[in-house]
């Protein structure tokens, strides 16, 4: 496990950085723009991320993974500082779009480096540790928010988030010395992603679409719930930081044991269905909650219990049905995250133009229903 140390440490700091600003971005943008414009900016950032994903094979061939990772980390640091000190519309737009385009691709390259170092007999264990480290980091991020927020200004949070990228940059500069083995076949002869093959392979399609619904849930929650809780319900950021930390704990607590449960006893299908039912029920109750911190914290926690079940079971199911060299299919699966942000931004913007703010939760329940349908269509592994 020692050879994974630099990747795990880099991932931890990157995830704390990401978690620190994840739920404040929409409020920062909201201080410059109307909420509809905020939605469009999230959409544009996700589109930029998808474009980088589609060109990732060519970029790897041109620059190599280590140099490309270093470049993206440095650009992310600069764009985070841009968000910290932005005082004009042009700077805030440029910084946010740049940051949104880079962040998920950084995780993608770390994913590839980890895969190169992994052996088939240890893949499940290593992936479990890696996912747990990501979730611990993201869960710790809101504590940074709660600790550093100073009244209405969010600048200290973004400065701290930028500094949190420095260990990842140093490790990318000094420790990452991976190379592309021949067996990996990293896109050298395949510049296009095999969407036709993916669509014909029903198990992979259902798992990816279930993942897309989950990422759409995350997108809507990340963009709109902080604004709703801060501006409509009236919670302060010191309170929201603690609430979001507790909300994210299920991803740390449940994913590893749930993965073991799916491997040994139940299988992914049943746990995925349970996850969608829990997440849907919790989301349906949100419009009826008043300004009660404990109640909101409990419901948000419950919604993430469901989300954590879905995340680990979709990951487990998908990777049980692909091989290490199927990197192009894995790329399609990873596209679900930025695509989910696009769905969340579009659906949220349309909903707010037609209905009152709290109706967005009912629309989200409808989206969750489609994920439940996909999970029911999966052929179980046990």
TrEMBL record:
<feature type="transmembrane region" description="Helical">
    <location>
        <begin position="212"/>
        <end position="233"/>
    </location>
</feature>
<dbReference type="GO" id="GO:0005886">
    <property type="term" value="C:plasma membrane"/>
</dbReference>
<keyword id="KW-0812">Transmembrane</keyword>
<feature type="transmembrane region" description="Helical">
    <location>
        <begin position="67"/>
        <end position="85"/>
    </location>
</feature>
<feature type="transmembrane region" description="Helical">
    <location>
        <begin position="130"/>
        <end position="149"/>
    </location>
</feature>
<keyword id="KW-1133">Transmembrane helix</keyword>
<dbReference type="InterPro" id="IPR020846">
    <property type="entry name" value="MFS_dom"/>
</dbReference>
<keyword id="KW-0472">Membrane</keyword>
<feature type="domain" description="Major facilitator superfamily (MFS) profile">
    <location>
        <begin position="3"/>
        <end position="382"/>
    </location>
</feature>
<dbReference type="InterPro" id="IPR036259">
    <property type="entry name" value="MFS_trans_sf"/>
</dbReference>
<feature type="transmembrane region" description="Helical">
    <location>
        <begin position="35"/>
        <end position="55"/>
    </location>
</feature>
<feature type="transmembrane region" description="Helical">
    <location>
        <begin position="360"/>
        <end position="376"/>
    </location>
</feature>
<dbReference type="GO" id="GO:0022857">
    <property type="term" value="F:transmembrane transporter activity"/>
</dbReference>
<feature type="transmembrane region" description="Helical">
    <location>
        <begin position="239"/>
        <end position="259"/>
    </location>
</feature>
<dbReference type="Pfam" id="PF07690">
    <property type="entry name" value="MFS_1"/>
</dbReference>
<dbReference type="InterPro" id="IPR011701">
    <property type="entry name" value="MFS"/>
</dbReference>
<protein>
    <recommendedName>
        <fullName>Major facilitator superfamily (MFS) profile domain-containing protein</fullName>
    </recommendedName>
</protein>
<feature type="transmembrane region" description="Helical">
    <location>
        <begin position="91"/>
        <end position="110"/>
    </location>
</feature>
<feature type="transmembrane region" description="Helical">
    <location>
        <begin position="155"/>
        <end position="176"/>
    </location>
</feature>
<feature type="transmembrane region" description="Helical">
    <location>
        <begin position="271"/>
        <end position="288"/>
    </location>
</feature>
């Amino acid at each position: 496990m020692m050879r994974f140390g630099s990747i795990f440490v880099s991932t931890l700091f990157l995830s704390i950085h990401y978690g620190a600003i994840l739920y404040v971005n929409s409020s920062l943008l909201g201080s410059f723009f109307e909420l509809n414009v905020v939605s469009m900016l999230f959409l544009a950032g996700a589109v930029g991320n998808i474009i980088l994903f589609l060109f990732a094979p060519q970029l790897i061939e041109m620059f190599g993974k280590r140099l490309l990772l270093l470049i993206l980390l440095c650009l992310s640091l600069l764009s985070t500082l841009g968000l910290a000190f932005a005082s004009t519309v042009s700077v805030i737009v440029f910084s946010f779009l740049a940051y949104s385009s880079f962040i998920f691709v950084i995780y993608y390259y770390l994913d590839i480096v980890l895969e190169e170092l992994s052996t088939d007999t240890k893949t499940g264990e290593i992936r479990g540790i890696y996912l747990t480290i990501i979730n611990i980091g993201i869960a710790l991020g809101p504590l940074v928010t709660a600790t550093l927020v100073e009244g209405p200004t969010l600048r200290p949070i973004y400065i701290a988030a930028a500094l949190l990228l420095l260990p990842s940059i140093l490790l990318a500069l000094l420790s990452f010395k991976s190379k592309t083995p021949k067996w990996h076949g990293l896109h050298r002869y395949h510049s296009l992603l095999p969407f036709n093959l993916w669509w014909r392979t029903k198990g992979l399609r259902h798992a990816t679409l279930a993942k897309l619904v989950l990422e759409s849930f995350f997108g809507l929650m990340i963009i709109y719930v902080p604004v709703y809780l801060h501006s409509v319900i009236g919670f302060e950021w010191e309170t929201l930081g603690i609430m979001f930390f507790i909300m994210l704990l299920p991803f740390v607590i449940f994913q590893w044991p749930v993965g073991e449960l799916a491997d040994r006893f139940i299988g992914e299908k049943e746990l995925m269905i349970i996850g969608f039912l829990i997440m849907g029920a919790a989301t349906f109750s949100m419009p009826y909650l008043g300004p009660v911190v404990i109640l909101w914290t409990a419901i948000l926690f419950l919604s993430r219990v469901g989300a954590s079940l879905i995340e680990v079971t979709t990951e487990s199911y998908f990777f049980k049905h692909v091989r290490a060299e199927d990197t192009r299919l894995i790329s399609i699966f990873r596209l679900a995250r930025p695509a989910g942000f696009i769905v969340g931004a579009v659906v949220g913007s349309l909903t707010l133009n037609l209905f009152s703010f709290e109706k967005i939760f009912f629309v989200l329940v409808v989206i969750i229903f489609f994920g439940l349908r996909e999970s029911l269509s999966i052929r179980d592994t046990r």
